[in-house]
Amino acid sequence: MAWLWLSSAVLLCAAALLTTWKTAVGPRTLDRLVSVDTLVAVIMCSLNAWAAFSLDSTVVYGATALSLLGFIGSLSVVRFRVKDKRRRP
């Protein structure tokens, strides 16, 4: 059973690293927004995996608050974002 927890931790860390890279490199604002939302989802999955591993349900409240903040943050960024400037080739 330990291999299951280890493999899920490795996959979640890889997802977080790739998403962080996409946030830094993303060519447009909406690409960065989607990658930040994905990073929030990966963090929520990590918190819930930790809750399942440690049998401690106190982190579930943090994951719930994080999901609400991520949703409201995404809505506000989409609502008030400025259009990207087009680059000429």
TrEMBL record:
Protein name according to UniProt: Cation:proton antiporter
Alphabetized InterPro entries for the sequence: MrpF/PhaF-like
Residues annotated as transmembrane: 6-21, 33-53, 59-78
Native source species: Segniliparus rugosus (strain ATCC BAA-974 / DSM 45345 / CCUG 50838 / CIP 108380 / JCM 13579 / CDC 945)
GO annotation, cellular component aspect: plasma membrane
Compartment(s) of residence: Cell membrane
Record Pfam families: MrpF_PhaF (PF04066)
GO molecular function, one term: monoatomic ion transmembrane transporter activity
Membrane topology label: Multi-pass membrane protein
The keyword Phosphoprotein belongs to this UniProt entry's keyword annotation: no
Keywords noted in UniProt: Cell membrane, Membrane, Transmembrane, Transmembrane helix
